[in-house]
Design brief:
This protein is α/β, with parallel strands linked by helices. The chain has one domain: von Willebrand factor, type A domain (Rossmann fold).
């Protein structure tokens, strides 16, 4: 027997109330959106995977999180490639101390590559936004951290999605890997990143990913990027 409209409304209201009752204030909800398109080979994928895990195991990351107003952030890892290939590989996890950071790193290492395909950055941003919509806590900031090694060649235009998301107060930061497309930093600046204090890091190859993601996380957690700036370019060797 189908639910009446009133019953359905009541169920949705109770679900929302339950979620709100268990929500806590956090300093940031962060989506790590990782490129796994065809241009990223198996070794490069592992460098990204391990780089994220190592960044959260770093004591400096934990200290920076604990120094925040609430001393906790929510983090999610989403892999993306083609327009219909966005997969959450590590769901929302609260990180507040070394044990929770280590547990998050272990989840990252335990996950497997989800796809490959074309490079649909705009669709990845839409999926990251959807993930933020279901974040479990009340975040002071919502941030999407996009890392990739190529321009969009499929799906919706990323600039249009970027503009819609930043109008809602979401910040989109970038990590451009220049191994295949040396001009990618300019593209990310013009079409991908945006929002209050948004910034971009650029690396020459995947071997520098771990260093770059660590620096990027510290900047995002501590909100050290220049206020109102569209781009703070830093090249990691």
């Amino acid at each position: 027997m189908p639910l009446s409209r009133f019953t359905l409304f009541l169920c949705l209201a109770l679900t929302a109330s339950f979620r709100d009752a268990h929500a806590e204030p956090v300093d940031m909800a962060l989506v790590l959106a990782v490129d796994v398109s065809e241009s990223v080979d198996a070794d490069e994928y592992l460098l990204q995977h391990e780089g994220i895990a190592r960044a959260f195991e770093n004591a400096q990351t934990v200290d920076t999180i604990k120094a925040g107003k609430h001393g906790v952030i929510d983090v999610l890892v989403m892999e993306w490639s083609d327009r219909d290939k966005q997969v959450v590989t590590v769901d929302w996890t609260a990180v507040r101390d070394q044990p929770s950071a280590s547990a998050f790193a272990a989840k990252v290492r335990a996950s497997q590559r989800s796809s490959n395909g074309l490079t649909a950055i705009g669709n990845a941003l839409l999926a990251a936004s959807a993930a933020l919509e279901r974040a479990p806590d009340q975040a002071a900031r919502q941030v999407i951290d996009v890392s990739g090694d190529g321009m969009a060649n499929s799906g919706v235009p990323p600039a249009a999605v970027r503009d819609a998301l930043t109008a809602r107060g979401i910040v989109i930061n970038g990590l451009a890997i220049l191994a295949s497309e040396p001009w990618l930093d300019t593209y990310y600046n013009d079409d991908v990143i945006g929002g209050q204090g948004a910034f971009l890091l650029q690396v020459q190859d995947f071997n520098s990913f771990a260093t770059a993601i660590q620096q990027k996380l510290l900047a995002e957690i501590a909100t050290r990027s220049p206020a109102g700036s569209r781009l703070t370019a830093a090249q990691i060797q």
